[in-house]
Structures are given as structure tokens and as C-alpha cells.
Amino acid sequence: MDKLIKLERQYCARNYHPLPVVLHKGQGVWLWDVDGKRYLDMMSAYSAVSFGHSHPALVAALTEQAQLLAVPSRAFYSDRLGPFLELLCETTGMAKALPMNTGAEAVETALKAARKWGYKVKGIPDGRAEIVVCKGNFAGRTTTIVGFSSEPQYRDGFGPYAPGFVSVPFGDAAALEAAITPHTAAFLVEPIQGEGGIIVPPAGYLAACREICSRHDVLLICDEVQTGLGRTGHLLACQHDGIKPDGLVLGKALGGGLLPVSAFLARHDVMNVFNPGDHGSTFGGNPLAAAVGTAALRLLQEERLAERARAMGSRLLEGLRALRHPAIRAVRGRGLLIGLELDPALLPARLFCERLMVAGILSKETHDTVVRFAPPLVIGPEEIDLALATIGSTLEAAAPMQAPRAADHMIV
Ligand SMILES: *Cc1c(COP(=O)(O)O)cnc(C)c1O
To answer: What domain of life does the UniProt record list for this protein's source (predicted)?
Structure first.
């Protein structure tokens, strides 16, 4: 294990700080390291592995398609892309889709679509389009995207930043309205901020944003790369507010945990700004991605994973809320996207993740203070209860000095 960690550290750029575990195998909600130790995956590769590791239906779709045709490029039509995007559009209620690979690329696609729509349809003077974003956002790591991040580390050393972005507090619809000008093309928002720390906005926030955007002829674009496809207990997290966005960004789970598959979806008049040659991707929408994406969307419906996320999510959320420990500041989330916020003075989130790893649970901190619990949506009640028991006992053991009284200490 140490040897492999050293090797990766020697040859791989140090742009991550992984937990010291070397994984070898995955099956469903379980992961195994090179020594054969088993872990419960409460991380799902940042919500990309919603169907569990190596789901047989997805692996079958991948291998069958790989043997037939994988990457012909979009210089030609394929028999896989049309049916995939038809299913994707019908599932999400959007008119058209533009397939990409990573989430960041699909967000970039959304930004390009919004700007061009602003100029060609809304009539914004050329070069003046503005896009409103939220403080605490996460939309990927490209130079444009980090330019509108409010996280100093994501930006530091990567300027100059692209102009044309205006930032408002997340969860504050009045601030959005105040930031809108005649040059505003779009508002880009995550229904729940994932990397920002699993931040759930006040009830009705997105509905208010929907009304404001419609009134000002501003596109409402939901970045559901992390919250989409059942994760929060609805197919899309924006359905909690009963709204439909003008543009939608999907990624992560769309690739079934096997491949990078993303898409920007939109109304006709938005997507129709793209002409041949305006935008593209060598791998975007390839038959392999389309076959896996199709199988993933089918599984989502067949296994009713949004409902499962809702049921298992409330079991996990309630269990976490019942834990008593002085380091717990907050427990929040929706469906199976849950954050446990800790007081870093009592228990740093990274340290807690390391302790959980030893106890057989893999998760990862976000922002030093929040531990994310986002297992594959196929997780069952016994595994949730096992996770709760392990989290409880690990918490108890982690900071015995701060424990107030044994009596109100731990409910497992
Ligand atoms: C992960 C994420 C992205 C970026 O996806 P990548 O595939 O890592 O480029 C974009 N938006 C949100 C909300 C995300 O969580």
C-alpha cells in the first residue's frame, strides 16, 4: 500500500490530497483496498457512482458497445446518440441536448449558449453579456469557471479571469433581482451547493428565481451535475421547488460511474443558437457514452432510484441528527446528498474522514468543516444503519476529551 502511494505521489501531480487508502475493487456500495479490506462507499466518486460500482447492466452496456463501436466522432451520425438524447430529453422534460464529457465542459457549453442567446435572441449589445452566479458556487475547474468562483484557492495563480460574471449570495432571490441589468443573459445556479458544503437554500428560493428570470427575460440555468438524476430524492433537485429551468447541466451520474458523460439541455430557442462549427467535442456523445448513458437512465427509472434516495436519505439524515456530539455543528441535505458540519477546533473534518476510513467508511471532507455522506443510491437500510453505527462510534472515539457526559453522548 505504502509503495503504491509513494509511486502515485512521485509521478502524479499533487492536485489532490487523497486519504491514504489504495483501492483495487468495487462492487455495489462496497470498495476493497489492495490488502482486501472492505469499505462502505459514502462518497460515490463525488456523486458520480449513483448506481453503485460495476453495476452489471451498465458493465454489460459498456462492454457490448465497446466491442461494436466506441468512438467514431460526430463527423458522422451514430445509431446510439439519437435514442440516448431522446430518452434524456423525455426524462428531463427539456427540448434539446448537447452532449459533452465532463461536467465542466457542459457548464462551459451552457455559458456559451447563454451568451450567444443573449446576443442573437435577447438583443444584448455584442461583448456586453453578463451572467449572474452565486457565491460559494462550484462548476468545475476550467479557467473561465474558476474565474467566477468565490473560493480563493480555486482562483489563486490562475488569472486573468474571464469578465462578464456577477456574483450574488446563494439563497437570496432579492439579490439576484438587484443584480440583473438589461445585459443579463442568464443566472447559473446549483439547486443545492454541493462542493460549497451541501448548502440547501431556503424553501421557495428557486421558485422565486424562476419568476424573476422569466420577468426579466433571463435564462435560468440549473447546474445539476451533482444534484441531478435522483440524488436528492427527485429526478432533478429543481423539482423540489416545482420549477423547470431554461437550461440544465447534467454530468457525473449520467456516465453510470463508468465514463465521463455530460450534457447541456435547453429550450429550442436557446439550443438553436448553435450552428455547425460553433462548438464541439471529439468524444462528446460517442456511442460508448451514449450506450452507457441510456442504460443509466433506464436503471434510474427501473430501480426507482429517486424514491430510494428519498427514503434512504431521510433514514440517514434522521440518524445523523440523532447523534449527540459537541463537535457537530449542523446536519443538512436532501435525499442522499448530506453534509455533517463539524467544529474544526474540536474535530477537523479531514481527521474525522481518516478515522472513518480506519473504521471502514470512505468519505471526504469539503472545506475543512463538512463531511459529505453521499453513498450510491442503491444503498439499502441495513447499510445505512451500519454507516450510522460506525459514524456514531467513530465520533465518540474521536474526541473523548470534549464529550460532555456519557449519558447524552451517543445514540447509535
Ligand atoms: C462536479 C461538478 C461539476 C464539474 O464536473 P467535472 O466532471 O468534475 O468537470 C460542475 N458542477 C457541479 C455542481 C459539480 O458538482
So the answer is: Bacteria
Is-contact 148 158, C-beta < 8 A?
no
pLDDT value of residue 1: 86
Q: Which fold has domain 2-54+306-405?
A: Aspartate Aminotransferase, domain 1 (3.90.1150)
Ligand 1 atom 15 nearest Cα: 226
For the question of residue 135 being annotated catalytic, the response is no
Specify the ligand 1 atom closest to the Cα of 224. Answer: 13
Start and end residues for every CATH 3.90.1150.10 domain found in the chain? 2-54+306-405
Q: Tens of pLDDT along 285-315?
A: 999 999 999 999 999 999 999 999 999 999 9
Which of the four pLDDT bands, split at 50, 70 and 90, describes residue 399?
Answer: low
What does the mean pLDDT of the chain come to? Answer: 96
Q: Which of 51, 84, 138, 352 is catalytic?
A: 138
* CATH T-level topology, domain 56-302: Aspartate Aminotransferase; domain 2 (3.40.640)
User: How far is 407 from 54, CA to CA, in rounded Å?
Assistant: 43
Number of separate helices (H) and strands (E) present in the chain: 14, 15
